[in-house]
Design a protein that fits this description.
Elements lengths: L3 E2 L28 E9 L2 E6 L9 E7 L10 E7 L3 E3 L1 E3 L5 E3 L8 E3 L13 E6 L6 E7 L6 E8 L6 E6 L6 E7 L5 E9 L5 E9 L2 E2 L8 E3 L3 E6 L11 E9 L3 E8 L4 E4 L9 E6 L5 E7 L6 E9 L2 E3 L6 E4 L5 E6 L7 E7 L7 E8 L6 E6 L8 E6 L4 E7 L4 E7 L5 E3 L1 E7 L3 E5 L5 E4 L2 E10 L3 E10 L2 E8 L6 E8 L8
Parallel strand pairs: 1-10
Antiparallel strand pairs: 2-42, 3-11, 4-10, 4-12, 5-11, 6-9, 7-8, 12-13, 14-20, 15-19, 15-21, 16-17, 16-18, 16-20, 21-22, 23-29, 24-28, 24-30, 25-26, 25-27, 25-29, 30-31, 32-39, 33-37, 33-40, 34-36, 34-39, 35-38, 40-41
């Protein structure tokens, strides 16, 4: 496919941010002193952060931006992605800090960096490419009609070396706390926590590590300062001398906010991005395990003071089943627990469902998934995620390499899936599916008619129980089954705004 080549300035590392703001003109008094139900309105502004994709000179990265068409938006708006440092100094300097003007007129002048990707109209994806190790982290903003549901996917192919294969991540939200079960400091693994600060003031961050015996001592991870408009990759092995196969990383922001993600690179089994698990909960769903997975490892952690006992079940195409020998999982408080589930899907679609056996204790979890065998292995991660909610979007899809997985763990659900127009041509198509209670289905997702380029898939539950979704993107190179999996939580394109009518006549008496 043809993509617009991006000229990206050099930068450092990071992840993602998405925030929404909606405004509402309060209705006039109607004489009833009651609060009306909240109105669902489109967000008016969204921010996104994308991490530095790779330090490999062999890396080839593509970005796909997409905003679904949303009712209730105006006709105006804009969206753009820029390097993490939004402004550059139009001067050069020596080691003493003296600045030399390029010309007298431009001395000391700050100039805004040019956007590296500018989205098209809602409903049509736009793509761009970058290559090499100098590709920076990106910060994006969208306003007006571009904001509701704006999604950006970063996909990187690395031909050889540590982490070779396909790596993908959704550009996501800045926040103040993140949990990453599934990281490692074991030999053969090189894991980084990428921190991105999108704001005008510095952020102060603590990184805590929890292994099989509890917290790992590390003063180096305390009080890390992330400068404004910058990205820092923190190598986990510099925070501790202990070699741990399975770690839970807790990123806690003392001041400010950051985007965070873990890049997990393996010397022999490829690598991928590990996105944050959903907030600690008593029950968790990890959707979209590839049907041909040769190895699945579950990593779980409970941050509370009490142990967690969980039922482990697989939502298969025929219903909920219990993996033989792994009916339950005991997670000790403050300790990372891991268990190998093997080829648990046995050639069928599957999602892991964790529920408490007795008292509900908040837990975070993720899956490390391997496809292939021997020297032709590739790794991806599936964190526990929240349900689709109103709508969710996968921005970067191809006609042959994409698999959409939908799970309805508790009740039957009807779901509409829309394939957008292609980035270079094609017409949008929608289909409706019924996902039975307790099952996972790898659906035959629609493809735009006359597709040219890439397209987006938008998932919208219509009725029934909660739906969980994930998209697998595959690209086999030289016999190595490169793949990456992204979960699809709600795109936060709509915000609930309370409306209230109040009778003020009593104040006039």
């Amino acid at each position: 496919m043809n993509r617009t080549t991006l000229s990206l300035i050099a930068g450092t590392a990071a992840l993602a941010a998405i925030t929404g703001v909606a405004s509402l003109t309060a209705p006039g008094a109607s004489g009833a002193d009651t609060a009306r139900a909240a109105a669902e309105l489109p967000v008016e502004r969204t921010s996104l952060l994308c991490p530095q994709p790779s330090t490999s000179d062999l890396a080839e990265t593509s970005y796909t931006s997409f905003t679904p068409v949303t009712k209730g938006t105006g006709s105006d708006g804009k969206a753009e992605l820029q390097a993490a440092t939004a402004q550059s100094d139009d001067t050069t300097g020596d080691d003493t800090g003296d600045k030399k003007s390029k010309d007298a007129k431009g001395k000391g002048k700050k100039t805004a960096a040019k956007p590296v990707l500018t989205p098209k109209e809602p409903g049509t994806p736009v793509t761009g490419d970058a290559s090499g190790s100098e590709t920076p982290a990106l910060v994006g903003t969208a306003e007006g009609k571009f904001a509701p549901g704006w999604s950006v996917q970063e996909t990187t192919e690395v031909a050889a070396g540590t982490g070779r294969g396909l790596q993908g991540v959704n550009c996501t939200a800045p926040d103040t706390e993140f949990w990453f079960p599934g990281a490692s400091t074991d030999s053969g693994r090189t894991d980084y926590v990428h921190l991105t600060n999108p704001d005008d003031s510095a952020a102060v961050v603590d990184i805590e590590l929890y292994g099989k015996d509890g917290a790992l001592k590390s003063e180096v991870g305390e009080g890390i300062t992330v400068a404004p408009h910058s990205s820092d990759p923190v190598l986990l092995s510099t925070l501790t001398d202990e070699k741990q196969t399975d770690l839970t990383v807790h990123v806690n922001v003392r001041s400010g906010r950051v985007g965070a993600a873990v890049q997990a690179l393996d010397d022999k089994a490829g690598g991928d991005w590990l996105a944050a698990s959903t907030d600690p909960q008593g029950s968790l769903v990890l959707p979209g395990i590839p049907k041909d997975a040769t190895s699945v490892r579950l990593i779980a952690f409970t941050p509370g003071d009490a142990d967690a006992d969980l039922k482990v079940r697989l939502a298969s195409p025929s219903g909920l089943i219990t993996p033989a020998g792994n009916e339950t999982l005991h997670v000790k408080a403050g300790m990372t627990t891991a268990v190998d589930l093997g080829a648990v899907t046995r050639g069928e679609a599957g999602s892991l469902v964790l529920t408490p056996t007795d008292d509900s204790v908040p837990v975070v979890a993720a899956l490390r998934v391997v496809r292939g065998k021997g020297a032709k292995q590739e790794t991806a991660f599936i964190p526990a995620t929240s349900p689709v909610g109103t709508r969710a979007t996968s921005a970067d899809n191809s006609g042959k390499g994409s698999t959409l997985s939908l799970a309805a763990p508790t009740r039957t659900a009807r779901v509409k899936v829309t394939a957008s127009a292609g980035s270079e041509g094609g017409t949008a198509v929608s289909k409706t599916y019924t996902i039975k209670a307790g099952t996972t289905q790898d659906i035959d997702a629609p493809v735009p008619s006359g597709l040219k380029g890439t397209y987006a898939l938008t998932v919208e539950p219509l009725s029934g129980g909660p739906v969980y979704a994930a998209r697998t993107l595959a690209a086999t190179e030289e016999g190595v089954p490169g793949f990456t999996v992204q979960t699809l939580p709600d795109d936060r394109g709509m915000v609930a705004v309370p409306q209230a009518d109040q009778d003020l006549s009593v104040l006039q008496k």
